[in-house]
Amino acid sequence: MSGPRPSPAARGGRRIVVALPYAWLLLFFLAPFAIIVAISLSETRIGIPPYTPILEWVEGAGLSVNAKLGNYAFLADDPLYLNALLSSLRIAATSAILCLLVGYPIAYALARTPDRWRPQLLIAVILPLWTSFLIRVYAWMGLLKTEGPVNELLQATGLIDQPLALLHTPFAVYVGIVYSYLPFMILPLFAALERQDPALLEAAHDLGARPVRAFLTVTLPLSLPGIFAGLLLVFIPAVGEFVIPDLLGGPETLMLGKVLWIEFFNNRDWPLAASVAVAMLVLLVAPLAWLENIRVKRAEGGA
Amino acid sequence: MSGPAGGKPATSNARVVLSVTGASKRFGDEAAVAGVDLEVRGGEFFSLLGGSGCGKTTLLRMIAGFETPDAGRIVIDGEDMTDRPPYERPVNMVFQSYALFPHMSVEKNIAYGLRQESLGAGERADRVAEALRQVELTGFEKRRPDQLSGGQRQRVALARAIAKRPKILLLDEPLAALDRKLRERTQLELVTLQERLGIAFVMVTHDQEEAMTVSDRIGVMEKGVIRQTGTPRGIYEQPESRFVADFIGAANIFDGAVVARSDGEATLRADALGTDIRVIAEGDWVVGQKASVMVRPEKIAIDRDLPENGGNRIAGFIKDIGYLGDLSIYHVKTDAGPVVQASTANSLHSTEQPLTWDDRVVLTWPARNGVLLPG
């Protein structure tokens, strides 16, 4: 520490500033999550609430804990859940990569745009987020349906004779996810690319690197943090996505979000739905935390 | 003045490695570079000196290939490079920000340019090691740029550029980010390196002292044009325009008109001083022509009384004294009004200031100490 010692009042203030986000996380994330974990360890029953209490005061015996792992065992036994998980991961990963392929050129162009045009273009990227997500997905239903504009255009240009079945296919799900999550890919990529000193690319050219090589050896590696951030921002919500596969997907698109919905609302099995949610979180967060840990260590330890 | 301006062998008979003819570049309505002609010879240390916005950096970037001139040609080592991209030009640049690749070690930064050539791994490693030795950074191979000091980064940038063995090394304000002591040391190291490598250096700087210290020749730029090209001594002692006289070093400039002309000498009636100033003059100066006389402060003698010596003589009193340690600069309010600067070296160890505020003094200088400039 080089600065002067802060006064006790300043230190108290600092503590409050640091504590606030933790308090927020504790109240609105950890506490609800603890409740969900608790529900996942209970059993379903007909009643309000529709699960057995996990802690019970039994006369004479004191506090009894009724935690059961039966729901998790059920998840592991029934291949439906594993398949839904794998399918969700596959769809989310593919969507994230498609977003990257579409978003990178857009972010790159944005970062190279003269300052006076950039704010307008950035707003254009964010603008769709201002309309309801649901309405935008409904709009895609209209666009992709058999007699929709996409099919009409394809027929008018003579590319196809018969309308294609676009809606309620995996294709429609990918279109929906890539379209909906693209801004979350573009923004971190743009931030990473815009931060780059343009002199670095000039230095690469100056040292004899042709444009493609300069991009691959300088621009791309330096934008990796943006790529990681973008992939995570698309991948994580896409794994649990429910609305898009429900509205645009067909019976063959099996996703965890949909399974969760069915357990919760159709079967009213709160404990099983909660265990699906907990399992999804653990299976997603654990490897990501591990990856992040490696990345941080590498960043600290030098090249 | 010490350094290359004094003792370095002349490069005037060396081959021309850079020839810029009529180079112009506009950005919108603004002419950044407006018709520059420039020749740099092999083994020469050339500086482009000027204030901000004078076009010096744009000119350097045109030589590097980052800007395409609207008009004019750029010939490097006998080959027209005007329309070639930077990666096909035999020049390398040391950027003002150094532009080191932050995700690569020192070694990889230096090897980057060599990887673009068809070199064997062994030769590449040799060239990297040699470049590191040239800038005295051996042992820093595995460091990353953010683990280096400013001075070390500057050396890596230098090593990365010279490892490519360019025909011309371009330097864009290479020392601007260093503190004063380090900058002065690095200036001399740059000169040593340039002499050892024997290639041409073209440096952009706004610091006239730096340009004078390192350069064989300087091009003084203003408003997109090179106003004068010459050795540091030539530019300081024989400026050809008011702008150059004023820009380089301190100068007293007296405006007026030529009132008499004799062999090798002219007399100028200085409007503000109300007196005549004698000055050596060659060329076609005619009586009645508007002109200015420039005299450097250190070329004016100052004392309470000075003998009449046939030179120029002005009386006044001391209004202000700038004590710089090695020098004292006297601001003398002349009887006619204008303030004239005269400086003396403080060569005697003395606690006593021989001249002090409000002293009446006489300023004298011989005709040969002045320079006649077009008005």
Layout of helices and strands:
The complex is a heterodimer of chains A (303) and B (375).
Chain A: H1 8-40, E1 55-58, E2 62-65, H2 70-77, H3 79-112, H4 118-126, H5 133-144, H6 149-156, H7 170-195, H8 198-206, H9 211-222, H10 224-239, H11 243-248, H12 256-266, H13 270-301
Antiparallel strand pairs in A: 1-2
Helix pairs in contact in A: 1-13, 2-13, 3-7, 3-10, 5-7, 7-10, 8-9, 12-13
Chain B: H1 4-7, E1 16-27, E2 30-41, E3 45-49, H2 56-64, E4 71-76, E5 79-80, E6 91-94, H3 106-115, H4 121-134, H5 150-162, E7 168-172, H6 180-197, E8 200-205, H7 208-214, E9 217-222, E10 225-230, H8 232-237, H9 242-247, E11 252-262, E12 265-270, E13 275-280, E14 290-295, E15 301-303, E16 312-323, E17 327-334, E18 339-345, E19 360-365, E20 370-374
Parallel strand pairs in B: 3-8, 3-9, 6-7, 7-8
Antiparallel strand pairs in B: 1-2, 1-4, 4-5, 9-10, 11-12, 11-14, 12-13, 14-20, 15-19, 16-17, 16-19, 17-18
Question: Oligomeric form of this entry?
Answer: heterodimer
Helix content of chain B: 10-25%
Instruction: Name the helix and strand elements of chain B from N-terminus to C-terminus, one letter apiece.
Output: HEEEHEEEHHHEHEHEEHHEEEEEEEEEE
Structural class of chain A, by secondary structure, is mainly alpha
Task: Count the beta strands of chain A.
Answer: 2
Distance between termini of chain A? 27 Å
Radius of gyration of chain B: 24 Å
Order of helices and strands of chain A: HEEHHHHHHHHHHHH
Q: What would you say this structure looks like, in words?
A:
The complex is a heterodimer of chains A (303) and B (375). Helix content of chain A is 71%, strand content 3%. Chain A is mainly alpha-helical and 303 residues long. Chain A has a two-stranded antiparallel ribbon. The longest helix of chain A has 34 residues, at 79-112. Chain A is globular and about 85 Å long. The model of chain A has no long low-confidence stretch (mean pLDDT 89). By secondary structure, chain B is an alpha+beta fold. Chain B contains 9 helices and 20 strands. In chain B, the strands form 4 sheets. Chain B has a 6-stranded mixed beta sheet, sandwiched between helices. A 5-stranded antiparallel beta sheet of chain B has the order 13-12-11-14-20. In chain B, strands 15-19-16-17-18 form a 5-stranded antiparallel beta sheet, with no helix packed on it. At the A-B interface, helix 8 and helix 9 of A face strand 6 and helix 3 of B.
